[in-house]
Amino acid sequence: MGVPTVVVMAEGHLSREPAERVTGMEMDEISLESKCSWEDLREQSEFLKSLADPVRLKILKLLLRGELCVCELASVFHISQPTLSYHLRILEREGILRSRREGKSRYYSIRNEEVAGIVSRIMELLEAWIERTRLK
Predict the structure, then answer these.
(1) Residue 76: CB partners within 8 Å, gap ≥ 6?
(2) Structural domain of 60
């Protein structure tokens, strides 16, 4: 059995470190330093869960370039329009996307620059982490 490790973030990068190197704080100290309530953690968890799907990640990558109508998004995916709408609703419900209707078409975009920055940064970190783990 190998040495126990934990995932840590340092200088914007995720890495695995031996557990004994990061256990300097007791659990009581960690919980005292935490400024997040359980409600905050639940909301953060729901936000991250909404990203945890390859279709939704692809939707976000496309929308980071700009607004698209459902028909444009549907042309990229080989899924039914109701399935695409399901994924879009999840992202809209979590406050990641906004939509507007123009005639019979519905257009989607990233809610605002702050959300676009968060989503973009999460994707950058994940892509870098995946690349590093593939090299091992």
Answers:
(1) 58, 62
(2) 43-135
